[in-house]
Amino acid sequence: MSDTTDAALELAGKHVLLGLSGGIACYKAAELCRLLVKAGATVQVVMTEAAERFITPVTMQALSNRAVYTSQWDAREPNNMPHINLGREADAILVAPASADLMAQLAQGRASDLLTLLCLARPLATTPLLLAPAMNREMWAHPATQRNAAQLVADGAFVLPVGQGDQACGETGDGRMLEPEELLQELVAHFQPKVLRGQHVLVTAGPTFEAMDPVRGVTNHSSGKMGFAVARAAREAGADVTLVAGPVHLPTPRGVHRVNVQSAEQMHEAVMGRLHEASVFVATAAVADWRPAAAAGQKIKKAANGAPPAVAFVENPDILAEAAATERARNGQLFCVGFAAESHDLAEHAKAKRARKGVPLLVGNIGPATFGRDDNALLLVDEHGTEALPPGPKTVLARQLVVEIARRMKG
Ligand code: C5P
């Protein structure tokens, strides 16, 4: 199985119109363009006159591999209507940066240049418009801008959140454009079907760490990547997502609420305290089966005779089995999904584990083949039998799994 990067081709087959209006954040649009192309999209850049003051069309042409449009009078289009053609070709229009003035123009339905023209002329039903605002914090907070943003949302545009922090003007606050990587994630998410809208998904991920003393403990090789991918996919599918994560150093997927824990007992407590608000529980965590019966308060010192310490273990709570046995799970208000990491006879072991845990859906994978990697292959086991999701990036498999969960919940 080859290891591909997570971002690989997430926008394959998509044609994105990237619009730039005037703002210092134009410099970030160059990196965004590169990321979109790297993710497999074709990108048509359109710039306003003000944007050209901040970055040149030469840069954007080189990065997008296409001539940039800057004027509605561009005669390259045979019908001389770039404002019609460009919007019709696009799967989405992303304006980044979207200046306060551009948003004001769009909110009023004005069309004084090519970018505002093509936004106004886009087919509302088929060409989504995403705006990444970028401006000084006072401009962003101004009632006029907030009014325009609300109007744009009411008119069917997607106004993305702004970032917070240092601004080019030296002030600090809300109004920065999201980072290119965040904008890429927003766009990828936008294209995912909203099959879990209205659901609250609780996910566990990563290993647990069972302390022996203040400096040592027992853990395992789980990277957390599969669980983080499930949390991200559920969020992209429109769910509210809480991710209870063991000790891993992975970035929190956008829009996901993360709760960090160390031990199985902490994970158990974090999950049980949140099950009442969840409609789906996906247990991807590799929870340690046992923990040292008592963690020493101080570092255990070597014995003079070299004898190793005698460490007694006790069993950890089975979080998944307990969740599946709750009243809400039994009467269908909570859909529980378990994972099984096996080394052989996957179907047989996964079926047995599904029965033992009492869950409607059990997902099997070969542990040693996937620990720490970006790729995986899944075997879904439910009451009807087994279904294989072929090898691919964990992000892709997670999206497929989310669709399978939604389908089974409907059923
Ligand atoms: O019990 P076993 O590790 O074989 O089963 C794996 C599944 O059970 C996974 O979904 C895992 O997250 C969950 N599990 C759990 N609590 C445990 C052990 C496993 O939730 N203590």
Q: Can you characterise this structure?
A:
The protein is an alpha/beta fold and 411 residues long. The chain folds into two domains: 188 residues, 3-Layer(aba) Sandwich (Rossmann fold); 201 residues, Rossmann fold. Helix content is 35%, strand content 23%. The protein contains 16 helices and 19 strands. Strands 12-11-8-13-16-17-18-19 form an eight-stranded mixed sheet, sandwiched between helices. The N terminus is likely disordered. The structure holds cytidine-5'-monophosphate (C5P). The site of cytidine-5'-monophosphate has 15 residues, from helix 12 and strand 16.
Descriptive terms for the model:
about 400 residues; alpha/beta; Rossmann fold; 2 domains; eight-stranded mixed sheet; five-stranded parallel sheet; 19 strands; about 35% helix; elongated; disordered N terminus; binds cytidine-5'-monophosphate
